[in-house]
Every structure is written in C-alpha cells, then in structure tokens.
Amino acid sequence: MMRFRPLWCLLAGMAGAVFVGGTAGPVAGVAAAGALWLVIGRAEPPSVRRRREQTRADLPHVVGLLASALRAGAATGEAVGVVCEALPGAAGDRLAPVAARLALGVDPIRVWEQLAADDALGPLGRALARAQATGAPVVRSVERLAEDLAAGARAEVEDRARAVGVKAALPLGLCLLPAFVLIGIVPLVAGMLGTVGL
C-alpha cells in the first residue's frame, strides 16, 4: 500500500470528484485523496504485525526462561542476555537492546520502564520495573508473570479450539443438508406420492 500510496490517493480523488460531480466534485476529490493518504499512512505493515504477534506468542517462553535464569542466580542483565541467545527470533531481537543497555550500566528502572512501553513485551517491562522500584524480589515477580502468561496462552488456545467448532458448523451444515434432503426427504416424498397414486 505504501509503495503505491500516491496512485491510490489519485484514484480516490478522481472517484470522489466523479461521484459527487458539479462544483463540489473537486473539493470532494481532494477530501477523499487526503483521507486515504492519512489512512494508508497510519496502516500497519503486515510484517510489523506478524513480528508483534510472534513476539507475543514467544513472551511466555521468554519469561519462563528468564525466571529459570534468575532462579539459577544470574543477574538480571545477564539473564536477559542468556534469554536473547537461547531464543532467537522476534522476542530475542526486541530484548537484545535491553540486555545491551543493562550491560552498559544504565539505570535498570529506566530500562524496564522503556520496555513497558513496548506493545508486545510491555508486561515483562512493567513487572520488572515495579520489582526494581519497590525492592520486591525480581525472581518471584518474573515467576508470577510466567505463570500468568502461561495460563493466558492456554486459555487463548482453548478459545481458538472452541471457535473451530463454531466456524465449522455452517460449512458442514451446507454440505450435509443437500445429502439429507436427497437421501431422507426425497425418497419419503416419492414413496408417499406413490401410495397416493399420482
């Protein structure tokens, strides 16, 4: 969409001008082109959406591995680096700058607050920022978050599995209804018409 944005806007402007017509046509064309320019500019590319969804899908595994590394005695920055190396992919790529900033000695609260603004890794950032700010045990906070994320992931999978049955009902009904009519109803009606003598 972004590559052909001027073309789409030109076509929308022409369509708006032709549709409205008269002296208001050019104004409507400019309004339609401007509106489409804004809509396309705000649209999220599919690759960005896929990476965010992949990061959200990986988040329970990332947090679980981070909890294990922290439980084993690793420092927070070191544990994040271990997680980034162990789980390459979208989540690891987003966590790599966090590990680098922690290794450089940046204030951990600021680092975790910045991660809290991330749309996919926000829960991890909020939990660690809260633990760092309040002095609560980081390991327990991460373990609790891992449990919550795992339960949420299980619930989401179960919801999707239930939705399959609902989505399959209409196609199956459309496939089975003609067979039911041809095998069950037509012979019954033909038999009844045969007994009546028509």
If you had to describe this structure to a student in words, what would you say it looks like?
There is one protein chain. The protein is 84% helix and 0% strand. The protein has 198 residues and is an all-alpha fold. It is flat. It starts with a helix and ends with a helix.
Name some characteristics of this structure.
single chain; 198 residues; mainly alpha; 8 helices
Structure summarized in a few sentences:
By secondary structure, the chain is mostly helical.
Number of strands: 0
Helix/strand structural class: mainly alpha
Rg, alpha carbons? 29 Å
Percent strand: under 5%
Mean of residue pLDDT values = 86
Give the biggest sheet. Answer: none
Share of helix among residues?
over 70%
Count of the domains: 2
- The termini sit apart by 65 Å
Q: In oligomeric terms, what are we looking at?
A: single chain
What is the fold's blueprint, element by element?
Layout: H1 5-20, H2 25-42, H3 46-71, H4 76-86, H5 90-104, H6 108-116, H7 122-134, H8 138-196
Helix pairs in contact: 1-2, 3-4, 3-5, 3-8, 4-5, 6-7, 7-8
